[in-house]
Amino acid sequence: MADYFPTVPKVTYEGPDSDNPLAFKHYNADEVVAGKTMSDHFRFGAAYWHVMRNGLGDPFGAGTALMPWDDGTESLDNALKRVPVFFEFLDKCAIDYYCFHDRDISPEGASWAETHSNLARVVEELEGEQKASGKKLLWGTACLFAHPRYAHGAGTSPNADVFAYAASQVKHAMDATHKLGGEGYTFWGGREGYASLLNTDMKRELDHLAALLHLAVDYKKKIGFTGQFYIEPKPREPSTHQYDSDAAACLNFLREYDLLDHFKLNIETNHAELAGHTMEHELEVAITAGALGSVDANRGDKLIGWDTDQFPTNIYDTTNIMLRILKMGGFTTGGLNFDAKRRRESHEPEDLFHAHIGGMDAFARGLKIAVRIQEDGRFDEFVTARYASFDSGVGAEIESGATDLEKLDAYALRITPPTLASGRQERLENLLNDYL
Ligand code: XUL
Ligand code: CO
Predict the structure, then answer these.
(1) What is the predicted pLDDT for the residue at 323?
(2) Three-state DSSP class for 45?
(3) Atom 10 of ligand 1: nearest residue by CA position
(4) What is the average per-residue pLDDT within 149-168?
(5) Phi-psi bin for 243: left (phi > 0), alpha (psi -120 to 50), beta?
(6) 23 vs 18: CA distance, rounded Å
(7) In this predicted structure, what is the pLDDT of residue 2?
(8) Å from CA of 120 to ligand 1 middle
């Protein structure tokens, strides 16, 4: 078997005292934590687009990533050669799942038909590698944003032929995901948004986007694909205004167009931050609607206002994320997909491993801390007590709908003015630090 990463042995768990940078110090796949193995808690995924296709260029300079297995061409042959490299990476890094866009794995051809046959050919190769390794597809998706034809959007393009191309691409990306046993299929809006209302019919664009999603729901039933559909919020970049700007906007859109039964959300940390929210806020909004599906794990840079897609290393954040995921009862179809890239200066293949190991260890620590917090139950007790006035009396009547404004008016006239208990935010923040 070829060895594309000769400086990296298979990464194993060596425990917190290890000083081996290519070992897990906290992520121990088979260790049971709160009733299930760590690998089942996380269902870690690697992103084909970042691991295999991200040359690490930025708006000011060319890519720096060393990829000795890649001849730099957009040929089918080169696409096929990348596949075993990726599976060696998954194997050595002990990552069970992966995600891709159609155009990450296979190039456009000279004709649209050849584009589809390229995809089908690479899917055969992926299928073979999956069978041989036991690795699984967390979700697939179509890249409806990179090609110039999508400059004005895909589902929201003002050009109906572009909509047809997007629909065609979604069909084939769904076929590919279905063939590979994908557990989900993601729609990220890409260029589904606008820069100026002077040239935009927002209502019509939203209607068209919903039409594309309904067509996908119909096709899903037709081919018997049982994976979960996700929609991934992001507020801007590339568009000034993205229609799927945050979890609340996505839920509203899905409800308005009668799509909520068919979709859950794939929440990404850096996108939450760009939307002006914390990740835990976005997760909670999704959970509250029964619609948290999966997570794109990464982080932003507090000093840079764009989607830097850095690897998650902040244990405070991974703790808060795992608290929300435990509260939901864990992932079913979803998982933690590292939608994250190395910094431009970390250009050696080995850096791919340092990056993922760090993310996996940070989540392992977050999980263990979150489990202790949950088992202690002190935050839960505080929150339960904080709302106790709704457990009986007038509060219970409000919650059950057994009251009206006149009754509440009479009640308010009768009682002494309310006295408030402290929210104790600082005490609770101190308590959270005690667990870290
Ligand atoms: C872009 C992004 C995408 C989606 C899949 O910011 O996060 O890669 O995760 O299309
Ligand atoms: Co993402």
Answers:
(1) 98
(2) strand
(3) 188
(4) 98
(5) alpha
(6) 8
(7) 78
(8) 22
Contact 242, 206 (CB under 8 A): no
Summarised one tens digit per residue, pLDDT across range 316-365 is 999 999 999 999 999 999 999 999 999 999 999 999 999 999 999 999 99
What's the pLDDT tens digit per position in 84-103? 999 999 999 999 999 999 99
> Smallest Cα–Cα separation from 169: which of 159, 177, 180?
177
Q: Are 61 and 117 within 8 A, CB to CB?
A: no
Domains of the chain: 32-376 (3.20.20.150), 379-435 (no CATH)
- The b/e string for 317-334 (b: 16+ C-beta within 10 A; e otherwise) is bbbbbbbbbbebebbebb
Query: In Å, how far are 272, 277, 326, 327, 328 from 284, measured between CA atoms?
Result: 12, 11, 12, 9, 9
pLDDT of residue 228: 98
84 cis-preceded (ω within 30 degrees of 0): no
- 33-58: pLDDT as tens digits: 999 999 999 999 999 999 999 999 99
pLDDT tens by residue, 208-262: 999 999 999 999 999 999 999 999 999 999 999 999 999 999 999 999 999 999 9
Which atom of ligand 1 is nearest the CA belonging to 141? 10
207 catalytic, yes or no? no
The beta strands (E) that lie in 109-225 are given as: 136-141, 184-188, 193-194
Mutate to test the pocket of ligand 1, among 139, 150, 294, 339 (most ligand atoms within 8 A of CB): 339
**Residues 265, 277 contacting (CB under 8 angstroms):** no
Q: List, in sequence order, every beta strand (DSSP E) within 91-130.
A: 97-101
Exposed e or buried b per residue across 366-399, where buried means at least 16 C-beta atoms within 10 angstroms of its C-beta: bbbbbbebbeeeeeeeeeeeeeeeeeeebeebee
Q: Of 95, 116, 94, give the one whose Cα is nearest residue 106.
A: 116
Active site residue 104: yes
Q: Which of 137, 192, 234 has the most ligand 1 atoms within 8 A of CB, as the residue to mutate? A: 234
Instruction: Extract the tokens encoding 341.
Output: 């890239």
Strand partners, 139: 99
Copy the structure tokens of residue 62: 């060319």
Task: Quickly state the pLDDT bin for 1 (edges 50, 70, 90).
Answer: low
Tokens standing for 128?
Answer: 């073979």
> Is residue 183 scored above 90 in pLDDT?
yes
Q: pLDDT exceeding 70 applies to what percent of the chain? A: 100
